[in-house]
Amino acid sequence: MSSYVSGFSDLIEKYESYQKASGSWSEHANGLNIKYFDRYCALHYPGQPLCQEMVDEWCRKRETETNASCFTRTGGIRSFIRYLRERGLTTVEPALPPKPEGRTYIPHSFTEEELRRFFYECDRIIPLRPELKYRMKKITCPVFFRLLYSSGIRTTEARYLKREDVDLENGVLNIRKTKGYDQHYVALHDSMTELLKQYDKAAEAIRPARTYFFEPPNGKYYSRQWVTQTFQCLWEKANGKQNKAVAYDLRHHYAATNINRWADDTFEFGQKLHYLSKSMGHRSIDSTLYYYSITPCLADILLKKTEKSFNELLPEVEYEEI
Q: Which H/E stretch holds residue 178?
């Protein structure tokens, strides 16, 4: 029996089946908002087929929303409409997404001492109770956050990692669930690979037959809220509340640290940037150049060494496909 109740429930079922088969279905990003849309249409347009008015009304920005939250809420509906249009199942057009708001957040620039204190707090976690979730937290936090720090992967990618996607023999991550669904591979440092091996053995002893590499006692994967709250708690213990930071800043730090290391090697700069872009799962080098803009003084350093602007340097570089 279908869990959808609108007049076009059969179309939603086809879309859900397709997304699940392609590994692109997310219960939070797709499922929840699709169900809300389905029930909205069933209530206000009972038994009616999908029409433009339904989509436009649902996707209109609400007074309580920012552009970003509206974009997130309606993203699954736009994907659903595109799926139908590509197959000739509707003539309805996806609503235009709201224009992105200017970003005011500046990623935290970690110092070595801040990071040392943070990982010290990760390592000294003491289980508050004997329950499984507290024991899992003790062994998970030191490894989870070190993986973000040493590989530059997104927090979502780390949460969604399955055991089968972690090659502990060769130290390679197969990133399937990622922003934009661009599958890519990440090679790990030997020390990180060894740490993952130790974690996997310890986690298997506590919670056998895990599906996800980092898996809470109730199964599936850790939530976004768990990452946010856990990082914040450990960060404030280590460095206080005055210097704000979030877990995603570890990805920014990874990129900026790598770029800074290339300052004396301008000849291979373009090729290294290409490799970094692929490893971080960016669709284009333009996305990686964002980190260039937040790397202190790098533009000036390169300008002095090459007597060229960075924009003049890039077109001369031929990239080799990976």
A: none
Whether the Cβ atoms of residue 148 and residue 216 lie closer than 8 Å to each other: no
CA angle 184, 276, 252 (to 5 degrees): 100
Cα of 204 vs its chain's centroid, Å: 25
Residue 114, pLDDT above cutoff 90? yes
Distance CA 229, CA 141 (A): 12
Tokens of 197: 């091996």
Helix 9-21 and helix 67-86: axis angle, to 10°? 90
Two tokens, residue 31:
């499922």
Residue reference for tokens 């990082």: 231
pTM exceeds 0.85: no
**Both tokens assigned to 80:** 């659903």
> CA torsion 251→255→261→263, rounded to 10°?
-150
The closest of 8, 64, 70 to 39, measured between CA atoms, is: 8
Q: What φ, ψ does residue 186 adopt, rounded to 5°?
A: -130, 120
Q: Provide the token pair at 153.
A: 């992967």
Distance between CA atoms of residues 239 and 233, nearest Å: 10
Query: How many CB atoms neighbour CB 299 within 10 A?
Result: 13
State the average pLDDT for the chain: 83
The token pair at 124 is 């000294």
Can you tell me the distance from the alpha carbon of 322 to that of 310, in angstroms, rounded to the nearest whole number? Answer: 23
Nearest Cα residue to 218 out of 155, 232, 226, 122: 226
Q: What is the pLDDT of residues 167-221, one digit of tens each?
A: 999 999 998 866 544 678 899 999 999 999 999 999 999 989 999 999 998 888 9
Exposure string for 179-208, b = 16+ CB within 10 A, e = fewer: eeeeebebebeeebbebbeebbebbeeeee
